[in-house]
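User: Modeling request: complex.
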Amino acid sequence: MLLQDEVKLLQKLDLFAGIDPGRLKILAFASERCHFDPEETLFREGDESFGALVIVSGTVDVSKSEDGVHVLKTGSDKGVAIVGQSSMMSDQPRNATVTALTEVEALRINRDCFVKLMASCPKCSAGIMDALGRKLSDEDLPKAVGAFH
Amino acid sequence: MGSLSEVLRVAGLEGDVIDFALRSVIPLDDLEGMDSQALDLRESFHARLRDRGLNHLVLRFDPERFNSEATIGQNLFFGVATEGMASIQTMVSHPFFRDTIAVDGLAQDLFALGWQFATQTVEIFRGLEEMPELLQWLTYMTPEELPRYEQLLARVDRSSFAVASNEDRRALIRLAFFYIEPRYRFGLLTQELREKIIAARHRLRRNMPQELEPLIQPYDPATYLSAGTLLENVLFGKVNQRIGNADQTLREIGRELLAERTDLRLKVLKLGLAHEIGPGGRRLSNLQRQRLGLARMLVRRSLYYVMNEPLAGADASLQQQMIERILAFLAAQPQSPAVLWVLANSELAHHFGRKVEFSQGRLLESVPEALNEDQPPLRNLNTAS
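Assistant: Request completed. Predicted assembly structure:
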């Protein structure tokens, strides 16, 4: 897969949808393609974060020790998945363990480049804030509302 | 050196110091037998990879094969440039080199590849003059060269090799030397071009004039590359970056092998310790500087150690780990010393014999803590607190 195709895949993710495509190309350029065999660990809970991983093809298992819940994420021609985005944003250790269930093709997003891109491009950070805002309203609000009932 | 190496381990700097050593080219006068030791390590390293079925993690230099993780230049010259870029410049300007790449239309192909590489690069990085921090990912061109390539692209077309000036030809062919398909993913390298490059590699090696020979030290499995880094010498190939955990796995195997070689390990640490870290340690990360401060303190034998939030900024689990390691190290000293430690996080106080809490300059509380059972009690602790 070529860099230009990866840029198109990144654009489909909420997190990057608001970033100018030209800038997104720098992010893809600074990122690396990598492959994992089934049962290989992409990263472990508590590991230092190097950035998010975009799952281009294959399925991974995401698990957190605090609740023991396993979530499967799959990337394919129809759409890509992303893991490790919260530790990339917050610079905190990984909050989940991600293991490959099949052969996995991924793009390792360069955290340093992502941070510099946000800092140097107000339009990009506005786009990302927007995506985060939508994510918060999708995922956390129902929980917050539920707490009041 | 034995205890210094222990201090580096306790401060968590051992890996960094070894990395510094691995990335350095050892001056000939300082080799002290490390050349033959590096060759032995090279052999053992690859033997261990084979034993564990991990051969594919390193793409070894093979005279008959194109190394997909190496640059086109490295594939063509198949060796280490003894004087870096200067070697390549001299080589490229020599009539022998021009004749060698004139065969099979290789020069035209490299020119076209360089043209496309420049086009893609300019497209990505154009207009970033006001954001120099993003230009750091452009490693094969200087920020000053970027506009020059932009002008060059306006002058020549990808197929205009025949009419291009010598200077433009050299600029584009030189740029093509930096291309690595899996790293840049512009889709510029065909199988046909790979084969042409291998053929040119053999022609270069076979017919190289004597005056050019010292410029390139060929990759030879039985020879130490005196112009290469220690890492290049041990790996004798390129890390297969396509494999997600390759770096980490190779690092672990390297650490294992080094642990089995006391003499070489100490030489490597010594080499790493000589690494230049800039004024005030500017070339180190914040955490590395903090670790270095700790190491500098631990290496001095003393009866009392006073630490004022030495790991500010490190995450909680790392702080916990470091406190445990440092206390165990100090407790094992012949005159186990007293430790006074100012903590930002009072949850870590259970490691100590007494907790003293202050607020706005006043003593709030002074209580003996139940010592952790596996933590040997430290002498004079009460006196110190």
